[in-house]
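Good morning C.,

I know you're traveling, so I'll keep this short. The sequence:
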Amino acid sequence: MRPEVLSSILHKCSKTRAFRYGFSLHAVAVKMGLESNVIISNHVLNMYAKCGKMEFARQVFDDMPERNLVSWSAMISGYDQAGKPLEAIELFARMKVDLPNEFVFASAISACASLSAVNIGLVEHEQVEKAFEMFKLMIQQGLVPNHFTLVPLLGNCSTTDNLRIGMELHCEAIKLNLDSIPFVGNVLIKMYSKFTQIEEAEKIFWSIKEKDMISWNTFITACNHALDHAKGIIVFKNMIETHSSIPDEFTYTSALSSCSGLTSSLLGRQIHGNLIRTRFINHDMDIGIANALINMYAKCGSIRYAVTYFNQMSFHNLVSWNTLMAGFANHGLGKEAMGLFKQMKGLHIEPDSVTFVALLAALNHTGLVNEGKFYFNEMMKTYGITPNVEHVSCIVDLLGRSRRVKEAEEYMERFCFEDDPVVLGCLLSACRVHGDLVIGKRTAGRLLKIEEISSSPFVLLSNLYASESMWEGVADARKQLKDSLLKKEVGHSLIEVKGCVEKFTVGRICHSRIEEILGVLKVLSFLDHDYSWCY
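The tokens, ready to paste straight into the viewer:
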């Protein structure tokens, strides 16, 4: 058989994907000693590639003593069409600079697009480690990543294990000068905020040259996540006053959340006034801002304003009802919470798990035991909601406050929360208040077996022993606390004066106006003896 005939038949096998015939013709070429013929080898290689047999194609390619542009093109195109973009790019990187033509470039670009799609797909399926490994291989092959490559990876660095990957990607962004553009910078701020690294997030925020609205919103939200609400308000003011940016719905929602965290009604009212002036408040106002206003007034002690604003809203979603319900809980308004729940039922609004947490908390703070048990059972039977740790904590605390410590322990065990530190803490606190030494010792033992996460179990157990004048037990509990190397969290209180929130910590006298404060306290102490009736 002449080489020209063999080439023609191999070409037809490639077109028709006739692998078995092509395989036989490859054997014929070997027998005829034509495997060193570059034209025949290219036809064999192309036939295998078209049939999806890339292992055979690669073997032919590697064994070729001489390769031309067709050889490289067939292999790169074959890898691309077989869904192996990384191999296609690796082979493209091995080509000489002056060798590729438009067909080779087309296959290489297609492989790059496929590789990015695979990378994004791995990220979307939360396989961040694999996606990062592919990202590193892309760099090793000489490919330069852009912001579209970095952002999906950064956006999914959400666990502690992924922080290292996120920091490495941040370094790559700095090298490529991409960290200062909003598209990448915003995602970096969000990533660091997940790990409460507010200092890093702040550095990135101020390094962004042309901040867009998402930049401001992301950083204010990051401040709230890190519980640095004061910084969130400062950034909000800076945005309006210095940069003359116009806040949107998300900005106002985040700023109001900062006010709630600071329990600053003065700042909250100022933002509310700004909303009125900028005509954000109308019948079609964003439901997120409306809910944030209810939450702000409720947390700042102005529950009447929260109720008034709730009643003025033209539309309520479930978050609106839950927010007001939580406000009633914080103010110990159990009957009002029950009234709101009945109103929800009348409007056929389906409550969720959060609704019942707020309702049970309100009944707990009011001491309505029977009502609490009724709604706890209704939550399971009527609405099919399985109690979680928050529900069980509420019912255990409610029963514990009402001297029904044994029943509280039974609830805890019935719903299998005897190993939960939060529920055990509620029960131990009730034992300390009512002097139930037997259940108290049992609960403290359970709590200390789980994990030494705080000093609370030791302190509560010590106080429980002290209430029963069991001083040896007190000494033993305090020794355990000392040996654990845990420190009791220092108590503090906050007070707002003219929009500024002042913090006073137990045992620390470090205020700039401490002399004036002590002077006023002395006067108040003196007045207390003779004029207590005035109060």
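Safe travels,
E.
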